[in-house]
Write a structure and sequence with these properties.
Length: 220
């Protein structure tokens, strides 16, 4: 008899905290298929297989909730909540979408629920926003770090829906069809939001370059 998965008897072992020096990796169809197989293999409740599944996608989930959360210090707790929800529903996962798509859909709902909970209680005025978490997720002491922080700052000026569509497709590397599943909207809407986000970012980069050139001329 196949053992029944009982999430209350198994909490995912804490994966190493997603360090500031790591960004989510780019995924391929093969790697997504591998993590989906891990999810299906973990349905029987085997602790080792469950831990492999958690560790395989922990970085992506942490980065996603850290970018979306209004409280970056809660990213670890939110990530834990995501996996607890996922494990509770793992027996119903059929593999029709990749495990990564399925898991980030749960992550999005978890963050939304956290917003609703936070709205019901007073928020500290000095509480940092999601930008702090995004900056922490940028690789430090590596070429391109300053550019990454600059991109993060630019992203904060975008409308929330465009920022999220850009992040899911361009930073997390989801194809548009899968991003539509994560975001819960049509593929065409995702494409439109990303295009508008790109146009806005390109305009900000041109403005920054123009200001830099003007500063160089004045200095000369």
């Amino acid at each position: 008899m196949t053992p029944t998965h009982q999430p209350s008897d198994h909490r995912p072992s804490p994966a190493p905290r997603s360090p500031a020096g790591r960004a989510p990796g780019r995924h391929t169809p093969a790697s997504d298929a591998a993590t989906t197989r891990l999810a299906l293999a973990a349905q029987g409740g085997d602790a080792d297989k469950t831990d492999l599944f958690v560790r395989a996608l922990h970085q992506d989930v942490w980065s996603y909730v850290a970018h979306l959360s209004a409280d970056p210090q809660a990213a670890d707790d939110l990530t834990q909540d995501v996996f607890l929800r996922a494990l509770a529903g793992l027996s119903r996962f059929e593999g029709r979408s990749s495990a990564r798509t399925w898991l980030l859909s749960i992550a999005r709902r978890t963050v939304v629920d956290s917003f609703r909970y936070a709205a019901a209680r007073p928020r500290r005025a000095d509480q940092p926003d999601w930008r702090g978490a995004a900056e922490q997720a940028q690789p430090r002491h590596l070429p391109g770090f300053e550019e990454g922080v600059a991109l993060t700052e630019m992203l904060t000026t975008l409308q929330a829906e465009r920022r999220e569509a850009f992040m899911v497709t361009q930073l997390l590397g989801f194809p548009y069809a899968e991003a539509a599943t994560v975001l819960g909207c049509p593929v065409g809407t995702v494409r439109s939001r990303v295009a508008r986000a790109r146009a806005a970012l390109a305009g900000m980069i041109r403005d920054a370059d123009t200001e830099g050139d003007a500063g160089t001329v004045r200095a000369a």
